[in-house]
């Protein structure tokens, strides 16, 4: 979890954003934290558990957990909104947010294949922990997301007479990392890693890594459009290959009740659940 990050003073975000086409298109360039815009469920943001923010899979599968709090990366993000229902986003970022030249992944640490620093962002003891140790030598993280807003709501609902329906947001996306990743199945001689014929104990390197995901944020009940009380659900699932990833599948879901008590319109009660499946190689 990013909550356990070591105490440090660091550059987190520094970017410039410019809009085009009367606000339909905007571009952001600079040091960015991608988990503020990609892979996020709005309903899940209620919960403190790190699994409901930046998901479990990229947190353990990518170098340094990917560009998410408390780490960020140089990136270019493009967002296009042709109307109120659809949003398309794409970003290209440095895939190594710690910037450590000798950053390693759990399989390498377990086998002793490298002597590099732990990739867990909670262990920020490497040189350059000030957030300016940029290293473009690993690879690029390319991520895209398509969003669909169901039943968009008017900004002011006080005078609305016809209910537009219960709002929801549906997202589909994925990423591809161009870097090399250690294999969980085979060693550098093509033998089964950890098997009786494993003569080296050193994982081979595989080029590229990917993940796909889907997110649902849907309100399922409210007494009226003027009411602050509502009930919403969220589901988020991620899937990726298991030969070079510690987590191959993960899902989290929950139920949120807003304004559960009279006179407490800003309160929310929620119940969330999540699970990840370890890769079998």
Total domains: 1
Low-pLDDT stretches: 107-113, 115-127
Q: Count the E strands.
A: 10
Structural class: mainly beta
Q: Give a short account of the largest sheet.
A: 10 strands, antiparallel
Rounded mean pLDDT is 85
Which series of helices and strands comes N to C? EEHEEHEEEEEE
For the biggest β-sheet, the strand order reads 1-2-3-4-5-6-7-8-9-10
Beta-strand percentage range: 35-45%
Shape: globular
Distance between the termini: 25 Å
Proportion in helices: under 10%
Number of helices: 2
Rg calc: 21 Å
GO molecular function: porin activity
Protein name: Carbohydrate porin
Organism: Komagataeibacter oboediens
Family: Belongs to the OprB family.
Question: Could you describe the 3D structure shown?
Answer:
Residues 107-113 and 115-127 have low confidence and may be disordered. The protein has a ten-stranded antiparallel sheet. 4% of the residues lie in helices and 41% in strands. The chain has helices at 56-61, 106-111, and strands spanning 14-20, 25-32, 73-80, 86-94, 140-150, 168-187, 203-221, 230-239, 247-258, 268-278. It is mostly beta strands. It has two helices and ten strands, in the order ββαββαββββββ. The two termini are 25 Å apart. The chain has one domain (2-227).
């Amino acid at each position: 979890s990013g909550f356990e990050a070591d105490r440090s003073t660091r550059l987190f975000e520094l970017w410039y954003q410019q809009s085009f086409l009367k606000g339909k298109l905007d571009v952001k360039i600079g040091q960015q934290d991608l988990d503020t815009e990609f892979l996020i469920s709005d309903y899940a943001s209620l919960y403190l558990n790190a699994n409901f923010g930046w998901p479990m899979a990229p947190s353990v599968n990518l170098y340094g957990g990917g560009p998410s709090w408390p780490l960020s990366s140089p990136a270019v993000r493009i967002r296009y909104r042709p109307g109120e229902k659809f949003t398309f986003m794409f970003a290209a970022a440095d895939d190594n947010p710690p910037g450590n030249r000798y950053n390693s992944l759990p399989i390498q640490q377990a086998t002793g294949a490298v002597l590099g620093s732990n990739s867990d962002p909670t262990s920020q003891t490497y040189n350059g922990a000030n957030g300016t140790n940029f290293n473009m030598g690993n690879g690029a993280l390319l991520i895209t997301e398509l969003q669909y807003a169901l039943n968009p709501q008017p900004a002011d609902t006080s005078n609305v007479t016809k209910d537009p329906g219960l709002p929801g947001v549906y997202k589909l996306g994925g990423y591809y990392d161009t870097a090399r990743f250690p294999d969980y199945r085979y060693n550098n001689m093509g033998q089964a890693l950890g098997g009786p014929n494993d003569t080296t104990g050193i994982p081979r390197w595989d080029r590229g890594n990917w993940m796909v995901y889907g997110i649902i944020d849907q309100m399922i009940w409210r007494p009226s459009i003027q009411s602050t009380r509502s009930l919403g659900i969220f589901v988020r699932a991620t899937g990726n290959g298991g030969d070079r990833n510690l987590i191959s599948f993960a899902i989290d879901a929950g139920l949120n009740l807003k304004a559960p008590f009279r006179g407490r319109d800003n309160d929310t009660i929620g119940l969330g659940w999540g699970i990840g499946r370890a890769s079998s190689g």
